[in-house]
Amino acid sequence: MFQFRVTYTLVSSYRISKVGQFHQVDPIWVRSVWDGAVDVVGIAKAGSTTQCWFIRSAVVEQYAMNLIQPTPEQQVHIRKTFNEDVNTRDRDLEAIKEWLRKEPHLPDTWDDCRIMTFLRGCNFSLEKTKRKLDMYFTMRAAIPEFFADRDITRPELQEILKLMRTVVMPGVTADGKRVTVAGATASDFETPDIANFMKIVLMIGDFRLKAEQVGVAGDIYVLDASVALLKHFLKVSPTIVKKFFVCIQEAYPVKVKEVHVINATPFVDFIIKWVSPFLKEKIRKRIHVHPDLDSLFKVVPKDMVPEEFGGTAGKVQGYMDMWIQALKDETAWFKEQESVKADESRRPGKPTSHEELFGLDGSFKQLTID
């Protein structure tokens, strides 16, 4: 056992109603909290690499989650990956801000942190950053089913949250990558509106645009396929699926490094084949279907994966609770952002049409399944 001190740079601000003792919180035991909530002093298991800094207690009135940032040593590696030069990045930032001000169809201003996340995601190529930002704001206007009514307390979103086991883990791997796990609480549920699930995923993505303060080396996804049943996919429109993947790949500065599928059934092969045309080739090549968990944990740290997915990072519901609270705390911001989108009537030249962006319709009922 050892004692550690965590400052507000790692832990979101807590509002504490009183100083007191806390019950055990897995995997961190928080012993005391100073009034004002700047410092937390506690006890952790020696050798633990789990970086989940949060408190669940009746005396905590409110908390919000921050993603833990890479260490200074990891940041050096990540900057090389991004082609990030600390001597010129501010100049690049100003160049993008000036470009936004001059584009009549795009928002005039946007906060520096989000723009920097786009620069990193585009390896500091100004032209790639401009294209991706343009597409981001274009998608926000083109897909209201993803970008309108983004209030996590709405009943239709609450229904999705009851089924979801989808979280971005707060820590990073040794080489600076972020791990996301995705699954569901059970498979025997009525198929929900998948657009609402995608809306929540993109809300988390928008939260990360500002939360990834120094960037990560890429993203690792662990997908639990045990809940993937034919009855669910028969009710899914390929149109909405394509919109989602176009949005993720063309409009967000995400670097998908690995996709790991666990608990696979023969039906999973069909799903992958069906989704593949919507994916870029480099992402298709990064999908790995594992025969067992031993295979997964040869390439993904076990302490970065929740217990329900076979790992040792604690219960997934604790992480879900943190993310739900984080999205609730941003309710006003999400409402404000509904107007932050492209105005096609002001785009120089020809406006971008819906057909140019997507151009596919149909459903799984039209497919032949062996």
UniProtKB/TrEMBL annotation:
InterPro entries listed in its UniProt record: CRAL-TRIO_dom, CRAL-TRIO_dom_sf, CRAL/TRIO_N_dom_sf
CRAL-TRIO domain residues? 157-317
Residue ranges for the region (Disordered) are 338-357
Q: Which Gene3D superfamilies match?
A: CRAL-TRIO lipid binding domain, N-terminal domain of phosphatidylinositol transfer protein sec14p
Q: Which Pfam families match?
A: CRAL_TRIO (PF00650)
Q: Which GO terms describe its cellular component?
A: membrane
Any single GO molecular-function term of the entry would be: phosphatidylinositol bisphosphate binding
- Recorded protein name is CRAL-TRIO domain-containing protein
Q: Which organism is it from?
A: Tenebrio molitor
